[in-house]
Amino acid sequence: MATITQWVEGARPRTLAAAVAPVLVGAGAAGLGHRVAPLVLILTLVFSVLLQVGVNYANDYSDGIRGTDVRRVGPVRLVGQQLARPGQVKAAAFTCFGVAAALGLGLVLAAKAWWLLPLGLAAIAAAWFYTGGSNPYGYRGLGELFVFVFFGLVATLGTEYLLTLAVTWVGLAGAVGVGLLASAILVANNLRDIPTDSVTGKRTLAVRLGDPATRRLYLAMLAGAALAAAAIAVAHPWCWLTVAAFALAVRPVRLVRGGATGRELIAVLAGTNVLLLGYGVLLAGALALSTR
């Protein structure tokens, strides 16, 4: 039986920046012209975190039963390392999805934002079919695209719409920046796993592009996120503060450019997660300052 600590590690708490940052940025964009309801914001944040944890457990389960995680370098794999039974991990994933679905339904009903309902259901389906099902899209090189769409555009703009019943260009620019950094986390993860994914048949985007092009893609995503923040800053100068977050990118960029592999890339994953969280906090805070 896995210990509580191993279950927590299996939830991959370091990845939760991808759940928190879009909600913060969406709330920041909403606050430019409206009063943000704290309860709605908190519940949206809980929904997003539950979805992320569900994704992580689902990924652990699906990769584990396929044998993809047997020789994987990185955090705890509950199924791959035989720390928990596959059924237990699958149940944990669907519990997270179920609670998130109920919470999301409540938010949609309260806001009467009916068009968000199919998007929420699509987000849950995307979370499962990333590595689940008979033809997972994560094994076909589409993982980064779906992360950009759901943890960038949908999460950020969905938060803004729940709070204001409107979507703005600031929210869209913020969503692009957050989506690119969230996708960069997956790019770094898949760059690390190219050797093992190549032999297990997991055709991620990194496997398809190869090592050098994947490194260039990672750097381009970070640059794109910086440009998105700069675009917002032209209209809202406080948002230039977001540039400070990229001090956190120095080490990850150095490692990626320097050809780091294997365990060395774990630091890139951790650093990119911290960068995403810093980006979200600073951009949201700068937008809040812009309302004064």
The SSE order reads HHHHHHHHHHHH
How far apart, in Å, are the first and last alpha carbons?
53 Å
The description of the largest β-sheet is:
none
Task: Classify the beta-strand content into a percent band.
Answer: under 5%
Q: Compute the number of strand runs.
A: 0
In DSSP terms, counting alpha (H) and pi (I) runs of 4 or more, how many helices? 12
Residues in helices, as a percent range: over 70%
Alpha carbon gyration radius: 18 Å
Structure description:
It is a single chain. The chain is mainly α. It has 12 helices and no strands. It has helices at residues 4-10, 17-30, 38-66, 86-111, 116-129, 143-164, 169-192, 194-200, 205-209, 211-235, 250-257, 266-290. α3 packs antiparallel against α6 (143-164), α4 (86-111) packs antiparallel against α5 and α6 (143-164) runs antiparallel to α7 (169-192). The longest helix has 29 residues, at 38-66. The relative contact order is 0.14.
